[in-house]
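Reviewers of the previous submission asked for a worked example of the structure-prediction workflow described in the proposal, so we include one complete record here. The input consisted solely of the amino acid sequence. No template or homolog information was supplied to the procedure at any stage.
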Amino acid sequence: MVQQKMEKKLAWLICGFGAVCLSTPVQATETPIDATGIDALRLRQSPYNLLGRKIAIGQVEIGRPGQFGVDKAANRNPNAVPVTRVFWRDDPAKTDTDVDPHAYSVAGMMIGTAKEVPGVAPGARLYSAAVGSMEKSGQPEECLAAQNLALQNGGDLRAINYSFGESLERDPRPDAILDGNALLTQCLDWSARVYDVLHLVAGNQGRGGIPIPTDNYNGINVAFTKRVNGIFSKIDFANIGDIAEGIRRRLEGREINIGPRRAIGLVAPGHEIPVLNLDGRVSEVSGTSLATPQVTATVALIQEFGDRQLVSRKPNWSVESRRHEVSKVILLNSTDKIKDEGNGLRLGMTKTITDKSNRTWLESDAYKDDKISKDMQMGTGQLNAYRAVQQFSGGQWKPGKEVAPVGWDYNKVELNKSQDYVLEKPLQQGSFVAITMAWDRLVDLNDANKNGVYDIGEDFRDRGLNNLDLYLVPADSNDTTRYTCASISELDSTEHIFCQVPATGRYKIRVGYRQQVNEASQPYAIAWWTVPAR
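From that input alone, the workflow returned the following structure tokens.
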């Protein structure tokens, strides 16, 4: 018993600080994808019936899951993790090579069909790539593998999962720091725009973290929570958290993003998660490695919902629903922060999420400071798959006309101009408003051979990030210096507002383009969730 407890503690520590996970055999009785976690199981029921059908997602890791018909290891339980295709970097995988238990468990978290450990999106198509041992691979090979995945499924792959990372000690740049310019980080930001794919990255930074590519701009970094009284609701101690200012200064740029830019986008359950092993046994694993695939697979759920609206030609819907920026804002804006009291004023949120010091989002600097868009530990909150579909179902609404209380849009804004979304109904005093906007850092490929794709030996050019701002203002006002709420970060590619409405009345959401760094026209995605007056 003592040995088992020690093994379990060791698994927690190793998985919490990195991508490699040890596990302890268990009898699976709970799942993080039910109502105690991300509430994805509810989406399998009517009227949603969502399994991620026909939606392609990807997985890049050191190894890969086994595939039935390719690997002997997968023949033991052929239908448990039905991977669509497996690769070694950008080549078809060779039989019985690079099959990895960790990659198998991560894949199972996304598409697993076993009843005792159900995956989030068992109907999704998973393409998985192994980059090989650390001694024989690095960021160039990892970029090549990610690019190859983005080209699968006819070039229609919606998200890629990264449950691993690169150490700065392995980065070839002299005095490498987390400034967004490691080759793999630039590769992710470039491919997000070029291949329109959302990158989901295991997001631990800090002492013992595996930081690259957690300094990306165009994806989402994921941290993890543990259960309190049976509910996933508290940031686990293994994630980055409150670091004394002196320690932060010593770590900044080495294991934490340089400057005030926040790393974590959102959190998901990751402590003592039941997973399926290659031999069919169930074990418990802890770490961002198992939190991140829950977010990746949720992209498949919302995108199945979106494609269904396209097929049925629903109003207020377009193919822009497939954009990676749209998926990003839908996930970030629909998180749980503060549990609703039953009156709907807190947007129907189901859980209160606390940081390692038991502080809520309402006590965070992100809530109090307009220049900080995300909390350091929890980002915008905890993933809620059910609420994400509710957010998405509000439909697309364009500026220039009144918009619904809940909705989203993909658009563009010109330098020194703005886009206004006038809410059609007055907002209720005392209710909360959640608004999220995201846009891409512009990274170009230095395409030496002019073939239009990344090749080993090539690199990228960082063209920087334009500065957009987000406001909630009275509907009859054009003065953004006197706003009700705002998110005006100068460094982030995400702006997020979560604020309480001071008085019942008409309001509008304003997107402003304040400072040009690259192009004069900036595409963006936005999502909002409000409470109409009663």
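The longest helix spans residues 288-311. We consider this example representative of the routine output the project will generate in years two and three.
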